[in-house]
Amino acid sequence: MKRAQTKLPGAVVVGLMLAIVLDTFIQIAWKLAVSHVPGDASLAATARGAFSSPLFYAAMLAFGAQLYNWLRVLARADLSFAQPFTALSYISVLAISSHSLHENISASKMFGVVLIFLGVFFISRTPFYTANASGRDQANPNLLRS
To answer: In terms of C-beta density within 10 A (0-12 exposed, 13-18 middle, 19 or more buried), how is residue 23 classed?
Structure first.
């Protein structure tokens, strides 16, 4: 019988929050790294523009941190539970883009934000971790879950 864990560990909460912050930083850094490149620039010109920006390299470092953090989260929570939470970075990117980059927020974007919040709310009501059929921990097969 599969058993679900119900009490969300603090490490998972912190890891999910960090995943959202890192993804938001990466997306905004990418945008700023190429913001001076004309929209009709060639691929080579766009790449040169990105590689000449310190923000591009900061985003790459954040990618490394994001990978490490995500591996730690997935060691403690089901992918089907954790992944939907990262959609909250769409909301933080939208808010920062609107405020700092002066991008437009349309009614359809706001409707999308509401749907994201609802989706994350419903996912948060589900168990965060499911042991396999033998009751053994998927991440550590030698550990028997109670």
So the answer is: buried
